[in-house]
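## retry 2 of 3
previous attempt timed out at serialization; input unchanged, resubmitting
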Amino acid sequence: MLQLLSGNPRTVDALGFLLAFALTALMDSVFHDKLPHDHGRAFAVNGELSKGKARGSGLIFVLCIALVTLAVVPFKAEYVIYTVLLIASMLSGYFDDAAETAWNEYKKGLIDLVIAVVAGVTYLNFNGTEVNFLSWSFSLPYAVYLILIIVLIWASINVVNCTDGVDGLSASLAVVSIGTFLLAYWEELGDYATAGIVFIGALLAYLWQNAKPSTLLMGDAGSRAMGFFLAVLALKSSHPFAFLLAALVFIVDGSLGILKISFKRFLHISILKNTLTPLHDHVRKRLGWSDEQVVARWLILQAVASAARAFCCSGPGGKFQLPVQRFQTGWVTNSLHEFTSFLLFHCAMCHKQMQAKPL
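## retry succeeded, writing output
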């Protein structure tokens, strides 16, 4: 809709960002007291501090994102299907959040699998089987690529979900990861880059109330949807392997617990006996890091991984070029400066919180 009102794509992106931010902030305020309340987590570090807080804000910001993208992203069947699946992944988490008894792991895993299969078939139907890796392009057999896509989406949903456990952590990491894809693959992403900007706007509005000490939690409703969206960005960039660096901290922090439990349950092999999972619990419990240190240091590590992703970005013909050199457009340079400024500001605020005395 807004594309018809403005001939400037950047104006549409800015409007989408502002609409998502304002709508999410408003809806968080209006429906804050109507969300289910967190029950606390018995085995998580400082899990009792979350007890009683409003949980399930992912329901709000995902619906706001879906609504805003209707105005700023052209209506296409493929994107509509992804939006429906995004809402489905959110709802599976929300109903789990709202349930008196947490859903069985196998039930959630099966729902994630169905979502991943539908998304994989959709992607291959609209985009084919060509894959880019650094400077190489090649095609994979349909069945092989479908399996890889299913693994990517299922893993992304679950590692992001497992990383959500510290005020401000997962949403901040998601902003950096989404920004990484936008900076490296703006032209390849096309309309999905606009959706990424809308997503960032909504996440920043959520972070306003999720910054420590938080009054609002996204719950599984938000984290599962974030994981799905990151996987879609990786696929639509045509560089799915970029996910390994663009979401490196999510992968390391969230996957260790999944691997530890899977090895124990299915193979009867105990690994990482002295490591608490997710990893953010280990560094808080065993190394004595504060929540603010976890957020700041995880952001720094992801920023370094994202910079490595940018360094590996290849230009036309397989020749190495940085993203700014590759696109030769002024707004990309400005976006890089804005993104860098955001990272520095966010880390500075985390450092300021660490220095502040508690009230």
